[in-house]
Amino acid sequence: LEHEAPAQPTPRPSIRARRAAMTTLGTSGRLLRAFAAAAALSIAVQANDTVLMASQPYCRKSPETHMLRWPDSTHEGRLVIFGGKGFTWKITKKGKGGRRKHELELAEAELKNRPRLIRKLIEQGSIKPQVTMFGDIWSFDAETKVWVRIWYEDSPSPVARWKPSTTVVDNSSTLILFGGCKSTSAQGVMNDLWLFKTESSYPRRGRWIQVHTENPPPKRRGHVTTSNRTHIIIIGGKGYDMQRKKAFVHTDVWAVPLAAIGVGESEPGAPRPRAVWTQGSEFPGSPRWGATGTGLTDDNTGKQYVGVFGGRHLNKAAGFHSTEKNAYTYYNELWLYDFEANAWSLVEPADGVAPHKRDHHGATAFDGHLYIFGGRVKELRSEDANMNDLWSFSLMTRKWTQHTSPAGAPAPIRRYMPGFTMSLWNGALRPMVFGGESLPGSTKRTSRNDVWVYAPDNSGTMMWHEVLKSYCLPTGVVLRNGVPEGLKPTDFYDEARGRVIDNAPAVAGIACAMAALSAVAAAVIARRRGSRERGDEGDDAEAAADYIQM
User: Fold this and answer.
1) What is the spatial distance between Cα 152 and Cα 132, in angstroms, rounded to a whole number?
2) What does the DSSP assignment read for 195-247?
3) Close Cβ partners of 25 (under 8 Å, ≥ 6 residues apart)
């Protein structure tokens, strides 16, 4: 059932590569002073393994966002994000001195805390953004407002992807991941099933386990993955027909017992059921993608549903991504799937009021209510094509309620494909937003990594609060395999403080090296798992201002 492939060892760089690294370090007195101790520790790097780092998750859209709990944590839970599609930064060979010169300039800019120099390098084309799929996990400490990367380099893990779907079980200590896409087009869809289990080990803090099942759902992306007390449920999404070379929309429903994959509650002593997927009643509405599906519990009856809201479909004779007014049909319907009865029902709001039709919005649930945020209402790449409104639907009253802020109060910028979940804020569960993409723009220009929470102010008035601004510029440069030989990255990374520490006694002079590298903290051990894709939109000549909070 559970298969854990052995971790792949990091290949030892060649002598030529190490000499190239030493040459790079020796070409500038300023950089040499900063990295002298690291050079003395025989840092081994591949010639082309220079990457740019960030102190918070790279800007992205379509991140999976949940609250997770750790077994040894004094906190009840933390906001966690996984994967998505956004951009990182690439050092170019442009200009005299090429890549090596830009590396030195970036290192100096970072060490001197001079982001203006980094912006200048972007403007002159020395570094440029590149569209990237991510496979990383970060947790956010709402009290300190600090992101911490969760490392699991010593165990197998899912490939980088966007538009996967996830759910949490076991009191939010286990994340279940199904499918997603490893390419911009739907041709890269997948149907793998993974569990991420939080752990008290240090500093890894979690472990991925791939689960193999029988009769799995076909490959897909942008689908629904949720759970009830007994099963994981998969609904819809977009697949790809390899013979016809065309994408298509799924309307199917699949389920597998939680106990069959080793999670959830089960009867003591009961045999584990086979991990076999079974099909339920197909979605009866018009085929659509970009919808959300959220597990809901009626607090009065205890009955559990999956609430599927929104989405869109391409009308006949219309071209994909067409901006014609009637090219797409958008929906604001709410369908409820009753798993026990294997039946669907279309909800008619009691007062006739409903949110605007949309797709690629965020959705979450709390206390018998479905919450939705943002999304896209038309294909045009204009500001009004996105939304930033917040609504909730009550299973008890069968009514929608819009949640607003006082006039003139701050609010998240309009966006689609945001991360959206309930997470702890000042001791209470509140709606929280992370990332997404604003318009007009593109993946490489207007993907975001800001954090917002909808919570009461000091007077008790509900409103949006900006917890962390979006900042997409790189914060420095580091060599990806820049780890002293003979030591694993986890030997020197202090997750709690988010920086490299001097706890590797086998290496002489480590304290000096760590002092030099403290400013580039987490990136010293970053071997980014994201597979790089070609840019799908935008231009490489964007102004640096596009990457700063707008």
Assistant:
1) 20
2) EEEE---TTT-EEEEEE--BSPPPPBBS-EEEE-SSEEEEEEEEEEETTTTEE
3) 31, 32, 35, 39
Strands laid side by side in the 206-211 sheet: 2-3, 206-211, 189-198, 174-181, 165-169
The beta-strand segments (E) located in 15-61 are 43-44, 50-53, 60-61
What are the DSSP calls for 258-282, one per residue? GGGGT-S---TTPPPPP-B-EE-PP
Tell me which DSSP letter residue 137 carries.
E
405/466 Cα distance (integer angstroms): 13
Beta carbons of 8 and 218 less than 8 angstroms apart: no
Q: What angle do CA 311, 415, 169 make, to 5 degrees?
A: 65
Residue 235: is its pLDDT beyond 70? yes
Give the Cα separation of 265 and 228 in Å (integer): 11
- How far apart are alpha carbons 81 and 66 in whole angstroms? 7
Q: Can you tell me the mean pLDDT for 76-101?
A: 80
Q: Of 115-129, 358-372, 376-390, 442-456, give the lowest mean pLDDT range.
A: 115-129
What tokens were used for 418? 């945001």
End-to-end CA distance of the chain: 47
pLDDT tens digit sequence for 476-533: 554 333 332 332 333 333 333 333 333 333 233 333 333 333 333 333 333 333 333 3
* Coarse DSSP helix, strand, coil percentages of the chain, rounded to the nearest 5 percent: 15, 40, 45
CB of 354 within 8 A of CB of 310? Answer: no
Beta carbons of 489 and 44 less than 8 angstroms apart:
no
Structure tokens, 404: 């607003």
List, in sequence order, every residue forming a beta bridge with 231; answer none if it has no partner. Answer: 257
Q: Which two tokens stand for residue 333?
A: 């319907």
Tokens of 503: 């706890």
Query: What is the pTM assigned to this prediction?
Result: 0.78
